[in-house]
Amino acid sequence: MQHQYNIPKVKESKAIKILTTIWMVPILAMIIALWLAFQYYAKIGPTIAISFKSNAGLIANQSQIKFKDVTIGMVTKISLSEDGTGVIIQARMNKEVTPYLNAKAKFWIVHPDVDANGITGMDTLLSGSYLELYGSKSHSEEENQQQFIGLDDPYIDYDAKGRYYQLFAPNTNNVNEGSNVYYRMMKVGRVERVTVSPDGKHINFTLFVEDKYTPFINSKSQFYTPSNFAMDFSKAKMDFTIANFSQIVHGGIAIYTPSQTITQYHPIPENHLFPLYKSLTEMKSKHLASNGEEKVYQFNFQDKITNLEIGIPIKFNEFQIGYVNDIESHYDDVTQSIQSTVFGIVHVDVFDSNATKGEAIITQLVQKGLKAQLAQSMPMIGSQFINLIFDNNQTATIVKNQPYDIFPTLQATTQPDMMAEVNAILIKVKNLPIEKLLNALTSMVDENKQPIQVLIGTLTKTVENLNKLTNAQSFQSMPNEINQSLKELQQTLQTIQNLTQSYNNDSQFSLELSATLKEVSLAAESIERVSRKLEKKPNALLLGDD
Questions:
Q1: Which residues contact 445 (CB under 8 A, 6 or more apart)?
Q2: What confidence tier does 284 reach under pLDDT thresholds 50, 70, 90?
């Protein structure tokens, strides 16, 4: 028997239903998409264009724009400028930075740079180059703009909490942008700019020092480049110092301020330029403070300038006031010799007075007899420098010439050559016929054994001391050895005189002895003359007899 079950009956609907449950999924997806689109476009700010001379590693749709290490935009397009002299960087900015896009906004490219002083922009090695923004917020939308000119170098914020100082030097002294600034071996700032001066005469440095360290810098402060390796032999000991790794890699500038001036009022004049000395030793040497006002003079010397080099100092009263900037040499067919012209930079502002500028004062001094003369700083080495001295024997003036005025010169005076005199004495001592005399005396031992043995012993000791004198390695101990030799020579002369009293004046021994004694006497006089000089000035062998 077949069972009957209740089968549901489906009623066919003829009505049209648009909204059903299945439509909820695409509607919900569309709402979410619209919300995300709104969120995206709500954050998007204006599109700006920045012009640069060249692109430095920026990539469209990859390189970011940062402000205080926060990403605020993206580079969207890179193209050449219409005239082909640069590139145009188009970027989409975030909406929240729109108030910063005004005339004060500055853009520059941050990219890795490797040179002898290390690596800059290390954070870009992984992330790639990016654009950096500096700006301040404006309160009016009318001040906003969309066209900008990019900077070649990072922007310096002169309104930062600190102070900027200007320095100058003949060369960079291995100091680069980013180098540290030290006060008493403590980092107090950094080097912001290293540029060539507009006239090309020197290098300009811009230093930033944090605000809390600026009270330790005044008009009496001095700046120098610290050495990476230093050795000190003073106080009977050797002190070896190695700079920290950051200074070795990046270089640096150190500040020295006399402690007594810190609590006093020594304001720094506006636009003041501090000289940057290449080492602590140069800073300690005698010099006159300069504010960078310089003048190039031409010097025509009649003396040989074989030991004059570029960078050699120009001195006045033992103070350095400039340096040799260039030396031009050429063959003169008339004199058949090499003629040289020296060009020197003089810091004329060191002569400034209350009413007269330094250049005018130099002109007045030249009219009073000031002239340039070659001098030797180290006679043994032959190093020369230019010394400004007064000579009233002949008046002279500065000759106006193009492109440089000609400074009057004076022929160098002949200085006594201590080394030549000492060398002549040593040769004379070595040539003494002492050994010949000893041989003659030896043959006479049987005739007068006792007195001659005494004489031979004395002469032998004298020869040993004379050899010690001629072979001495240190000139500093020379005066003591000379005095000892003189005393023993005198004793020898006295012994010989006593011995020869019993001999005939016409004998061969007497003749040879007389000749030898004459040579010994001449040598003794020369040695005594040099000894007196060395007693008065022990370093005369090194620094001359001035």
A1: 452, 453
A2: confident
Last residue of one domain, picked from the residues 239, 265, 284:
284
337-346 vs 295-299, strand pairing mode: antiparallel
CATH number at residue 473: 1.20.1440
With contact defined as beta carbons under 8 Å apart, do 455 and 441 qualify? yes
Task: Give CA–CA dist 277/119, Å, rounded.
Answer: 25
Instruction: For residue 125, count CB atoms less than 10 angstroms from its CB and return exposed for 0-12, middle for 13-18, buried for 19 or more.
Output: exposed
- Amino acid of residue 407: F
pLDDT tens for residues 315-364? 888 888 888 888 888 787 887 877 788 998 888 888 877 767 778 888 88
- Euclidean distance between CA atoms 189 and 195, whole angstroms: 18
The answer to whether 267 and 241 are in contact (CB under 8 A) is: no
- CA-to-CA separations, 120 to 95, 175, 277, in angstroms, rounded: 31, 14, 25
Residue that is last in its domain, among 371, 390, 410: 410
Task: Say what the alpha-carbon torsion angle 402, 403, 409, 412 is, to the nearest 10 degrees.
Answer: -140
